[in-house]
Specification:
The chain is α/β, with parallel strands linked by helices. The protein has two domains: 192 residues, 2-enoyl-CoA Hydratase, Chain A, domain 1, CATH 3.90.226; 47 residues, Orthogonal Bundle (Lyase 2-enoyl-coa Hydratase, Chain  A, domain 2), CATH 1.10.12. Helices cover 49% and strands 15% of the residues. The protein is built from eleven helices and nine strands. A six-stranded mixed β-sheet has the order 1-2-3-4-6-9, with helices on both faces. The chain has a three-stranded mixed β-sheet with strand order 5-7-8. Bound molecules: ligand LHQ. Ligand LHQ binds next to helix 2, helix 3 and strand 5.
Length: 255
Amino acid sequence: MEPVLIHQHDAVLEIALNRPDRLNALDRSLLEALSKALERAEGESVRAVVLRGEGRAFSAGQDLREAAGGELDYQEHLERYNRVVLQMRRLPKPVVAAVEGVAAGAGMALALAADMRVAGRDAVFVTAFARIGLVPDSGMTFTLPRTVGWGRAFELLALSPEIPAERALELGLVNRLSEPGHARNEALALARELAEGPTRTYALIKEGLNASARLGLEETLELEAQLQKVAGSSRDHREGVAAFLEKRRANFEGR
Ligand code: LHQ
């Protein structure tokens, strides 16, 4: 069975973690396949990505059987996670995670590495790392406090409560809730909407947000000016303004 499934729906690439009998626990072969799928997402025909899990869970995190096998070199293994997280963050197009069921540990970290999250009303998030005596990895010490704030991040990381979807929405961990079982369709609809938008501008927004995590105000203002110069000379900007003046819907091309 392929550890990751890929479907392309027009300009939307759907990537599905595919170990449903293990709740999409992440092992070496799944992470390698996910990295390849994300490479494919770099292709010009893709303007937005949906990441989801097959079956009843998004992902139960690191495959604890593989980890317990004693053969796992954590340093080497984390490089696989880090690669995938960086691919998602650096991908110059929006990534929407569709979360059904559980997103635990490194599975939650993957969902947080996406740009937006849609969750089924019965989804549950759990940081899980400290439950097994580990510190957060896969970028979670970066993404979680930036998503929910320091105090909440510390609490969620230290106490590892199960966070039901409604609470996740209140905390800002997810953008939207769907009826149970409909997160995939909602995420695909959202990704389609994004794919029809000014996607080159979205890439610049992502670049600006990524950089804002390490820049001070002055440098941020400078970078914004540079990014605006690029956006301001794009076809989509001209089209957006023309559409406004002509009172019609803009036809963005991502250029
Ligand atoms: C699993 C797993 C799993 C293997 C369910 N592994 N088989 C650490 C190290 C290195 C690098 C990166 O990051 C990390 C951080 C992490 O991600 S640590 C792992 C964090 N995840 C967990 O601690 C979750 C472990 N799983 C559970 O607590 C439960 O399975 C949950 C609460 C997710 C779901 O419970 P149930 O709905 O009762 O399902 P289940 O437990 O019966 O699971 C179904 C099957 O999936 C079962 O297999 P079996 O052969 O017995 O039917 C589980 O063993 C398997 N599975 N999670 N992480």
